[in-house]
Amino acid sequence: MIYAYFLVAIAVIIGAQRIADLRAKRALYLALGVALLCAPIFDRNDATFNVLADAGIFVLLALGLNIVVGYAGLLDLGYAAFFAIGAYTYAMMASPQFNLHLPFWLLLFLAAGFAALFGIILGAPTLRLRGDYLAIVTLGFGEIVPQIFQNLTQYTGGPNGIGALDFPSFFGRSFGQSTIPYYYVVLGLIALALFFAHNLRDSRLGRAWMAIREDELAARHMGINTTAVKLAAFALGASFSGLAGVVFAAKLSLVSPDLFQFQVSVLIVSMLVLGGMGNIPGVVVGALTLVLVNNVVLPQANNIAASAGLHVDFGNYHFFIYGAILVMIMLFKPEGLLPSRQRKEELHHAAA
Amino acid sequence: MLRLEHVSKRFGELVAVDDVSLHVQAGTIAAIIGPNGAGKSTLFNTITGIYPPSTGEILFQGKRIDGWPTHRIAAAGIARTFQNIRLFSFMAAIDNVMAGEDAHLHAQLWDSLLHTLRQRREEKEARQRARDLLRFVGLEGVSETYARNLPYGSQRRLEIARALASRPKLLLLDEPAAGMNPKEKREFGELVRAIRERGITVLLIEHDMGLVMNVSEEITVLDHGERIAHGTPAEVRNDPRVIAAYLGTAVA
Fold first, then answer.
1. Which among B99, B102, B112 has CB closest to A200?
2. Which residues in chain B have Cβ-Cβ distances shorter than 8 Å to A219?
């Protein structure tokens, strides 16, 4: 059953790319949206919506990173840091940790703001860096942030993290143990993120990002303030991640530093590479595909292997599997499954 | 309009620009010529703030601009093209031009996020201005083509359209006619005059003597980073030091 959700969503998004008529395309997306909204009425399986909410959190993360990497061309390998900042914002302000019990909805805003602020703080020292150098520095930040959460034991619970986080509530009604409310929150946030990501691409800011990605020096000569524009990319990208972090922490009711390790950043970058950097539908498909592999296919493979009397944990092989997927993509479709027009041409030219 | 006072630029031991003073009058077409390695492009880079001068002052419309960041100098009204074309390769021609308008757009972060009425109106106007500029440089009909896919001569024109989009008062052209055939060069000369007709002062670096002598009213000659001559085309043509610099003979 869970496969049906992923495969239908992926098929609809890929199919929509082949439709030239804008209205038919919109109608198709709208139908998908309505179907996703109505799904919990017919399907009351909590586990399904747990996986779907996780998938949605990764779609949010991928959309956020896409702004930094896909639009502005700034390779960020430490993106999970902002996810962690969002999650810890909720954990510290809605738990017995400090006996602060701020509402979930307020913390969504606060965490987005905090993450954006840290996006600027961590982005500022990297402004002069490009390409490999930028990737290394951001990778460093991605390592530092979970370390800080791990070592500030008196505030963050150290390696054990913070547990027993508050259940969010909606007009006085607690989310409780059900995962369906989280699913709806995630759907709402994705809708918002899609709206913003789409608008940004066709705007003054989006054009400036494209320009600095193509040629930063020329962009400066056109009067584009590259400092401000890059910091805006870091801040906006991070804010999506902050939102995702809050939902993630609330749903799990727990945060700990090991949830935000380097592999999370790698996973999100892999989603962009797989789906097609810079292209919104591509990024969503990339995120859904890898979550499907990670959270559905691998655990099931374990069960099948166990019932056949084999003791293999496919979860241990997930990096091997991403690696294989990425190598295949690089060999056969380096622009990703659903690339933007730019990226396709770029790689086409590079090959020629 | 533009005044350079004893500008020098050193890179370690190398003196790329040596005590150059220059005054470009508003409304003129001026040229900087000189053999390869004379420091012409370095001088442009110094003017546009890529690297500030080691010594000396640069004044634009009476204000000192040396030390300003490049984007601020651009916004103040100095636009340029590059010796080796630096377009935004994988952006449509029209988007290249619209990127050039950036400093004159007012859309803030919120406008970009929400596509407010103000942002939509502004984008529409910006697009129209960009179309007009493409027509002005003779590139109507290719507005949706990626810069990368345009023929060489069109790329040069697109760079000029993009520079004009930033509404410059002074336009710096760095070897704009390089690689053009004689017909394209003639047309290009016309374009430079048309730009001046719009009230934009032009300062160009060019190797093609035919073009330089034809279009410019004042010429400055650089050699080994030093200014060796200055004057009208006729004066410069007959200056023995200029002849020596180009032909490599010793000055008597």
1. B112
2. 88, 99
Q: What's the pLDDT band for A350 if we cut at 50, 70, 90?
A: low
Q: Do B99 and A199 touch (CB under 8 A)?
A: no
How far does CA A96 lie from the centroid of its chain? 28
Chain B residues in contact with A220 by the CB 8 A cut-off are 69-71, 74
Mean pLDDT of B97-123: 94
Interface confidence, given as ipTM, is 0.93
Does A189 lie at the interface with B, CB-CB under 8 angstroms?
Answer: no
Q: Which of B69, B86, B112 sits opposite A199 (nearest CB)?
A: B112
Q: Can you tell me the mean pLDDT for A61-80?
A: 96
Q: Smallest Cα–Cα separation from A257: which of A154, A97, A166, A143?
A: A143
List all residues 6 or more positions away from B21 whose beta carbon is below 8 Å from its beta carbon: B4, B5, B6, B7, B227
Beta bridge partners of B31: B204, B219
Going by C-beta distance under 8 Å and a sequence separation of 6 or more, which residues neighbour residue A143?
A78, A262
H/E run at residue B169: none
DSSP state of A295: I
User: What are the tens digits of pLDDT across the range A329-340?
Assistant: 889 888 888 888
Disruptive mutation site among A67, A201, A207, A342 for chain B (greatest number of B CBs within 10 Å): A207
Query: Which band of pLDDT confidence, cut at 50, 70 and 90, is reported for residue A18?
Result: confident
Rounded CA-CA distance B112/B122 in Å is 11
What is residue B49's three-state secondary structure? coil
Does residue B252 register a pLDDT over 50?
no
Q: Is the pLDDT of residue A102 over 80?
A: yes
Nearest to A221 among B74, B95, B112 (CB): B74
* B88 → closest Cβ in A199, A211, A232: A211
Q: Could you give the CA distance from residue A64 to residue A268 in angstroms, rounded to a whole number?
A: 10
pLDDT over 60 at A291, yes or no: yes
Q: Which helix (H) or strand (E) holds B182?
A: helix B182-197
Contact A241, A83 (CB under 8 A): yes
- A215/B91 touch (CB, cutoff 8 Å), yes or no: no
Show residues of chain A in contact with B122, CB under 8 Å: 204
**H or E stretch covering B171:** strand B170-174
Q: How far is CA A121 from the centre of its chain?
A: 20
Kindly state the average pLDDT of the residues B160-168. 97
User: A120-129, A207-216, B1-10: lowest mean pLDDT where?
Assistant: A120-129
**Rounded to whole angstroms, how far apart are CA atoms B150 and B87?**
11
Q: Left, alpha or beta for A301 (phi > 0: left; psi -120 to 50: alpha)?
A: alpha
Q: Please, what's the largest Cα pairwise distance for chain A?
A: 66
B248: alpha, beta or left? (left if phi > 0; alpha if psi -120 to 50): left
Average pLDDT (A118-136) is 90
pLDDT above 60 (res A351)? no
Say yes or no to pLDDT of A352 above 60: no
A225 CB within 8 Å of a chain B CB: yes
